[in-house]
């Protein structure tokens, strides 16, 4: 490799950020390449592939482009690298790039989980650089913006995790729901499985089908519990200690709810920490939140719908819940609270809820909700593009923050309609 270089801001405009895409042959790497190539402050200096096919053969949307793929051994120094490669590869390369003063944005899973024992069990391999995991910042700007600005390594979230975390965060932060009983149903387009072929995702198999997979202990569950759990510690957590105590004593869920009704108002900010010790299950001692997550593939290409079922610790009308979301995301350009009113007199309500197609190809997340007051349930719908806000586009948002740019730069496109 050539000698080191340092990115510097010049004059009134930012200097060009030189970026490499390590692993551009798959869907995530190809999408990163597409967005970066349109970015006014970025120059893509290389993109790698292990194969011999030209870029336009792997990604036909690049046919006629002058962008070329190179072998990994041909790369040159750059300011930032996007990893879009199989799990285990970034941790082998991280130190090399950090020694070159290169910022890392990993679109994979190598640096997402702070609990290394969990990571090694879930991914089935020994982690090669625990020190990098420790310094890596989980790349949801809406939760970790200031830390991202100072980071050297960004662990971009998983697609399901992005949708679910953004969907659950306001309710958990406000202390409005039972953190030990959150249920998330995740529906994903097939691009989330990557470009390699597999029988369940072959068109004749998935075309008129829904395919459940990894229905318990899905790896993205750990991201959800880790990140949403941090919000419990930060929030006021009213009522959570009483609920946790009721469950720990062997009471049924409804008995815990009664405890909340009588003692919740007296609970303080320490509830989150107490709950961590009282809760059982996958979250164990490492998270005060337990998420029951089930995933399925559906016959669309791009997109995630996370349906989050949360159970309030007191009655919460729909308008109050929407107000919590509006306030939480009031300064967030890329998260839109979808609060269209119900259609008066309509037997089938469609208008109030977000659609996956509306955010395809974008960095937007749309969030809507409904309240079942009779059964004491809040159901939240969070939609995003699995390789957009759930992947490469969010990575570019993080790149902008790392280098002091307006985080919207290169990302303000809206979705196609119809798609």
Structural write-up:
The protein is globular, with a radius of gyration of 22 Å. The chain starts with 16 loop residues before the first strand and ends in a 17-residue tail after the last helix. The strands form 2 sheets. It has a 7-stranded parallel beta sheet with strand order 3-2-1-4-5-7-6, sandwiched between helices. A 7-stranded mixed beta sheet has the order 9-10-8-11-14-13-12. It is α/β, with parallel strands linked by helices. Helix 1 (27-37) crosses helix 14, helix 7 (159-173) runs parallel beside helix 9 (219-234) and helix 10 (240-248) runs parallel beside helix 12 (271-278). It folds into 2 domains: 17-135, NAD(P)-binding Rossmann-like Domain (Rossmann fold, 3-Layer(aba) Sandwich); 161-386, Dihydrodipicolinate Reductase, domain 2 (2-Layer Sandwich). 33% of the residues lie in helices and 17% in strands. It contains 14 helices and 14 strands.
